[in-house]
């Protein structure tokens, strides 16, 4: 049996007894019912995930998966493809958006090359797990083979497990890959059965053909590859990307170890759709951070059925939104542990 299969079989649902206890405690805290809104739901979810009434997530890590995309040659981006390589180096150095926001949240950033064009020096601080030098051009053929798609998922699982072994108890997902809003939107178009024109956005900067050209490329990719909507691994292989598979793998690996995962924006949410399609129980372990400004973001969150908590008009990627939401996890834990209950203070309402 392969690692993916074995890991999926280890995933369990939430600890329902602890969910009940956590809800009881949240409802007994000195506040009007439900007045802490989504923070209450988060506290209950974290108790159900960890099996503890007072969990603590003091070892946070954001796993950034980096890869390139052959579909770049269709002119879907205004940015040079080499930005993927350069920015991956900068992410590892801690000088990009995710690095600074992770520092603010006390989180580590783990940078993984799962398919960037070009090789990194050994001392770059980038973990080398390259499956191939970029995904294939989805407008003319598949992004990768089924075997490579499974390898991308298993790479994510292995990276998540390694971080958890080292002590991480809260993970976040991030990515770097010029062009990756194109395969992300192709996946959403297939899984959500939504015409590409309705969900295609500018990403980090659209090519000279504009958004309509990008939507046409996505449509062509789907027509060319005919992915099977009911087989998420087929969808990932045909119109996805290596970093998307890697992030989905991180989610599967974290869920198997009962570790919560905070999703970043659009591309992470698409990876979550793949992970949850492969194994629906993964959903219990996911926390959505921010609502991406990318037009498909809203549809992706709706399809996933998890609403983001922050509305910051961000669309950076890299794991930046996940880092920004980490303190909310700490806040949810602290209300459970440190707020008093009505009976403790002798108050009745
Ligand atoms: C300098 C720079 C830094 C980034 N960091 C994340 N992205 C984001 O933009 C890319 C997706 O947008 P598209 O599909 O339009 O290429 C991904 O790399 C994503 O992480 C960046 C993009 C740029 C240009
Ligand atoms: O929301 C995101 O994650 C996003 C959107 C556009 C470009 N890069 C990332």
Automatic annotation (TrEMBL):
User: Under which main EC class is this enzyme filed?
Assistant: transferase
Active site (record annotation): 318
User: So which domain of life are we looking at?
Assistant: Bacteria
Query: What CDD domains does this protein map onto?
Result: DMB-PRT_CobT
Look up the coiled coil feature and give its residue ranges: none
Q: Which UniProt keywords apply?
A: Cobalamin biosynthesis, Glycosyltransferase, Transferase
Gene Ontology MF annotations: nicotinate-nucleotide-dimethylbenzimidazole phosphoribosyltransferase activity
Pathway the protein acts in: Nucleoside biosynthesis; alpha-ribazole biosynthesis; alpha-ribazole from 5,6-dimethylbenzimidazole: step 1/2
Which transformation does this protein catalyse, written as a reaction? 5,6-dimethylbenzimidazole + nicotinate beta-D-ribonucleotide = alpha-ribazole 5'-phosphate + nicotinate + H(+)
Per the UniProt record, which EC number(s) apply here?
Answer: 2.4.2.21
Reported function: Catalyzes the synthesis of alpha-ribazole-5'-phosphate from nicotinate mononucleotide (NAMN) and 5,6-dimethylbenzimidazole (DMB).
| Family per similarity comment | Belongs to the CobT family.
| NCBIfam families referenced in this protein's UniProt entry, alphabetically | cobT_DBIPRT (TIGR03160), PRK00105.1 (NF000996)
| Name of the protein in its database record | Nicotinate-nucleotide--dimethylbenzimidazole phosphoribosyltransferase
Which organism's genome codes for this protein? Answer: Planococcus notacanthi
């Amino acid at each position: 049996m392969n690692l993916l299969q074995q890991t999926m079989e280890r995933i369990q649902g939430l600890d329902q007894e602890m969910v009940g206890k956590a809800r009881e405690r949240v409802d007994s805290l000195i506040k009007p019912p439900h007045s802490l809104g989504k923070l209450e739901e988060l506290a209950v979810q974290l108790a159900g995930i960890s099996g503890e009434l007072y969990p603590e997530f003091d070892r946070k890590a954001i796993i950034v998966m980096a890869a390139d995309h052959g579909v770049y040659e269709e002119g879907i981006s205004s940015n040079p493809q080499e930005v993927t390589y350069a920015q991956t180096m900068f992410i590892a150095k801690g000088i990009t958006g995710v690095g600074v926001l992770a520092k603010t949240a006390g989180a580590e950033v783990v940078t993984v090359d799962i398919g960037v064009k070009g090789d990194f020096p050994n001392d770059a601080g980038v973990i080398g797990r390259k499956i191939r030098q970029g995904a294939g051009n989805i407008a003319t053929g598949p992004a990768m083979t089924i075997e490579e798609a499974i390898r991308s998922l298993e790479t994510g699982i292995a990276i998540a497990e390694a971080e958890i072994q080292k002590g991480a108890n809260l993970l976040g997902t991030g990515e770097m890959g010029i062009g990756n809003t194109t395969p992300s939107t192709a996946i959403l178009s297939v899984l959500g059965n939504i015409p590409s024109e309705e969900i295609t956005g500018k990403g980090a900067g659209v090519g000279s053909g504009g958004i309509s050209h990008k939507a046409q490329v996505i449509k062509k990719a789907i027509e060319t590859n005919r992915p099977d909507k009911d087989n998420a691994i087929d969808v990932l292989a045909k119109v996805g990307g290596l970093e998307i598979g890697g992030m989905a793998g991180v989610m599967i690996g974290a869920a198997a170890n009962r570790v919560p995962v905070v999703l970043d924006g659009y591309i992470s949410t698409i990876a979550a759709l793949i992970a949850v399609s492969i194994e629906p129980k993964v959903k219990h372990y996911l926390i959505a951070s921010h609502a991406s400004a990318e037009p498909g973001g809203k549809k992706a969150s709706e399809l996933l059925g998890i609403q983001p908590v922050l509305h910051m008009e961000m669309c950076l990627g890299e794991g930046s939104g996940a880092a920004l939401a980490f303190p909310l996890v700490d806040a949810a834990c602290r209300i459970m542990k440190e707020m008093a209950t009505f009976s403790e203070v002798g108050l009745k309402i």
